[in-house]
Automatic annotation (TrEMBL):
Its main location: membrane. Part of the Sec protein translocase complex. Interacts with the SecYEG preprotein conducting channel. SecDF uses the proton motive force (PMF) to complete protein translocation after the ATP-dependent function of SecA. This is Protein-export membrane protein SecF. GO terms for molecular function: protein-transporting ATPase activity. It comes from Dietzia lutea. Keywords: Cell membrane, Membrane, Protein transport, Translocation, Transmembrane, Transmembrane helix, Transport.
Length: 352
């Protein structure tokens, strides 16, 4: 009497999975990784990640930029001025440490930007005079003048308007996405995709809160752009799952969970490649933004998109499809088909 070499189960554990190296299993895509089978563990992991991120958002909050908090920005040609000295001069003149001091731009276009709370006209005049006396900045025509120091103010309501419009755009986007996926595939896939997108938003925001990255309007815009990447990856996986499960109710060879797990494995290497290809240009953008151009907006966009791409890949592979299986297993037809597959296997093992 022989014993079957492997037995697939209702949970979606891989059947007959290859036992080669990690890369062999990744490239073969024959169900070597029991992602669906371990969905309960993945739910716990996901819940822990979300809980940590929400706790940080609630108790630690965000480091908002001047566009959200409101304030005054002073700027002058960078020259060879030390940022710490610039901060000290401004602090002495207004009696308060500036929020940020940074050098942006490249070459002769480099400037020092100082962000502070809202300053009165007298405080702005005092700060500019102190900076001029200490650093003697020159205008475009080469003459040393206090006019070389610029100032601008930003109302905190502007950042609030950006956030409000972004939230409206996010809501409309999620409604459209749900409708499209429900029409193209089915409502269970649409629900799983929306949950994955919400996970991306919460996790990316939580990482910003935990690490303390500054939140700017560019960050909010970048957060919306990463949802498209995450959705693309999820739809690719779902398309493969649909292909594998087409006509499943009329067969008794594999359960829905097993076919879904196979679909994730078949697209896993593609997801990894897409993530790497997406992250590499963003790393290059960070290098250009920080070391060459010194443009803060580019850095903000690059960081939020890098974080979002990684979380989006995680949610597409380890959350969306396992959640889809949990939802589909509530379908009476799927439950009957699963029972038929398991009964057939038990009968085959008994005969063997």
């Amino acid at each position: 009497m022989s014993t079957p070499t492997s037995t697939a189960t209702e949970s979606g554990a891989p059947a007959g999975a290859p036992t080669g190296s990690l890369f062999t299993r990744l490239y073969t895509g024959t169900g070597a990784f029991g992602i669906v089978a371990n969905r309960r563990k993945l739910y716990v992991l996901t819940a822990v990640i979300v809980a940590i991120c929400l706790a940080s958002i609630i108790f630690r909050g965000f480091s908002f930029g001047i566009d959200f908090t409101g304030g005054t920005k002073l700027s002058m040609p960078a020259g060879n001025h030390d940022q710490d000295r610039v901060a000290a001069v401004v602090e002495e003149s207004i009696g308060e440490e500036p929020q940020t001091v940074q050098v942006v731009g490249a070459g002769d276009a480099r400037i020092v930007e100082v962000e502070t709370r809202f300053l009165t006209s007298d405080e702005i005049r005092a700060a500019k005079n102190a900076m001029f006396e200490e650093f003697q900045p020159v205008t475009a025509d080469g003459a040393a003048s206090v006019e070389a120091i610029g100032d601008s103010a930003r109302s905190e309501s502007w950042g609030g308007q950006v956030t409000q419009n972004a939230l409206i755009a996010l809501g409309v986007f999620l409604v459209i996405v749900f409708g499209y996926i429900a029409f193209r595939f089915e409502w269970q896939m649409a629900t799983a995709a929306i949950v994955a997108l919400l996970f991306d938003v919460v996790t990316t925001a939580g990482i910003y809160s935990i690490i303390g990255f500054e939140v700017t309007p560019a960050t909010v815009i970048g957060l919306l752009t990463i949802l498209g990447f995450s959705l693309y990856d999820t739809v690719i996986v779902f398309d493969k799952v649909e292909e594998n499960t087409r006509g499943l109710r009329h067969t008794a060879s594999r359960t829905f969970a097993e076919e879904a797990n196979l679909g994730v494995n078949q697209t896993l290497m593609r997801s990894i490649h897409t993530t790497i290809i997406g992250v590499l240009p963003l790393l290059a953008l960070v290098v250009i933004a920080v070391w060459i151009l010194g443009v803060g907006t580019l850095l903000d966009l690059a960081i939020v998109q890098m974080v979002g791409i990684i979380t989006g890949t995680f949610s597409s592979v380890f959350l969306a499809t396992p959640l889809l299986v949990s939802l589909k297993n509530r379908d009476p037809d799927i439950r009957r088909q699963t029972a038929k597959v398991l009964a057939r296997r038990e009968k085959a093992e008994a005969i063997a």
